[in-house]
Amino acid sequence: MSKVHVFNHPLIQHKLSIMRDKNTGTKEFRELLDEISMLMVYEVTRDLPTEEIEVETPITLTKSRTLSGLPIGVIPILRAGLGMVGGIMNLVPNAKIGHIGLYRDPETLQPVEYYCKLPADAEQRLLLVLDPMLATGGSASAAIRFLKQRGCNHIRLVNLIAAPEGVKRIEEDHPDVDIYVAAMDEKLNSHGYIVPGLGDAGDRLFGTK
Questions:
Q1: Is residue 108 annotated as a catalytic residue, yes or no?
Q2: Catalytic residue (choose from 26, 104, 173, 178)
């Protein structure tokens, strides 16, 4: 089954508490999401492999370590996932960025892909799928499925807040994909919003409500 990693770092929890506040404005909300994303990717990449190299410092030659293994790709789910890209790229500036756009068919209620642009070598990268909210898990599961259909099998899901229902969906649909979250909330309400949550992340991020 998928492993769920919940980050309890004091800085992450402090910043998330401010984001939850309904009185936090768009500018501050956007800046906090950027900051938390940067703090999270530090932990998401903790187990990346390294290799020993020789470096010449101003003093002498020495052995040091550098990243090895798969390069990273960052895949935000449009539109709210865009708010997590900047913070991650601050720490992983050489990562390539792809985008996945989904909407829900009003008749079947199933996620439909309307846009997908990936790095040419996406199947050879460790892909971090980004979406602030893991609610029902439908969009995230569909995005991961679309990536797998294109030959991508090294995938991690990164969310700000998750509901148990969303985690369960990912565990059932993609047991090979680990989930990284800043908080595991209580449940979904009758409208599909995470409780206590922070409202609609996309609207708060872009000031559209």
A1: yes
A2: 104
Supply φ then ψ for residue 54, to 5 degrees.
-105, 130
Q: Which of 26, 173, 178, 200 is catalytic?
A: 200
Cα distance between residue 160 and residue 7, in whole Å = 10
Q: What is the mean pLDDT of residues 143-168?
A: 96
Asked about 204 being catalytic, the answer comes back as: no
CB 30 within 8 A of CB 83: yes
Which residues does 102 contact at the CB level (< 8 Å), separation at least 6? 77, 78, 111, 112, 113, 114, 139, 142, 143
**What Å distances lie between residue 101 and 34, 149, 170, CA to CA?**
20, 15, 18
176 is a catalytic site residue: no
Look at the block and give the residue holding tokens 């079947």. 108
Answer yes or no: 200 catalytic: yes
Mean of pLDDT values over 121-146: 95
Neighbours of 16 (CB within 10 A): 18
Catalytic residue selected from 108, 125, 150, 169: 108
**Alpha-carbon span 84 to 74, nearest angstrom:** 10
33-70: per-residue pLDDT in tens?
999 999 999 999 999 999 999 999 999 999 999 999 89
Crossing angle for the helix pair 164-173 and 138-149, to the nearest 10 degrees: 20
Per the omega criterion (within 30 degrees of 0), is the bond before 196 cis?
yes
* Buried residues in 163-196 as b, exposed as e (16+ CB within 10 A): bbbbbebbbebbeebbbbbbbbbeebeeeebbee
